Amino acid sequence: MSEKLKIKISIANRVYPLTIAPNQEEGLRKAAKNIEAMISQFEQSYSVQDKQDVLAMCALQFATQVEQKLLDNKYADEAVSLKLEALNALLDAHLDSERS
Q1: Which pLDDT score, from 0 to 100, does residue 100 have?
Q2: Please, which domain of life does this record's source organism belong to (predicted)?
Q3: Which of 3, 14, 15, 24 would be 20's cystine partner, CB 3.0–4.6 Å?
Q4: Chain centroid to CA 46: how far?
Q5: Is 21 exposed, middle or buried (0-12, 13-18, 19+ CB in 10 A)?
Q6: pLDDT digit string, tens, across residues 54-71
Q7: How many CB atoms lie within 10 A of CB 35?
């Protein structure tokens, strides 16, 4: 079993000690950096003073991005499936004509 790594992540002027697998460190640090950047953007754009409001807006933004990607992937998967079905039908028709 891999050794755990103890790190500290700072978000919204609070430090969070975490114990993680070493391969998670880069992703966590990038995520924290993205959250900090979004906090800064919201504070500048909307003059929000309450960190809880800013964090809620960040959570909504990230959740929306995840949901949109899931929807986009679903539609892409459906489009690929339809194209594959059409291609399969063409191949079946061609093979049937070859057999006749």
Answers
A1: 74
A2: Bacteria
A3: 24
A4: 24
A5: exposed
A6: 999 999 999 999 999 999
A7: 20
10-46 pLDDT tens trace: 999 999 999 999 999 999 999 999 999 999 999 889 8
Instruction: Tell whether the model's pLDDT for residue 1 goes beyond 70.
Output: no
Cα torsion 49, 53, 57, 58: sign: positive
Is 87 strand, coil or helix?
helix
Instruction: Enter the tokens of residue 32.
Output: 């924290």
Name the β-bridge partners of 16.
9
3-state secondary structure 21-74: CHHHHHHHHHHHHHHHHHHHHHHHHHCCCCHHHHHHHHHHHHHHHHHHHHHHHH
| Domain encompassing residue 66 | 5-99
Tally of domains within the chain: 1
Locate 62 and state its tokens.
Answer: 């990230």
Token pair of 56 as six digits: 């809620």
How much is the pTM? 0.68
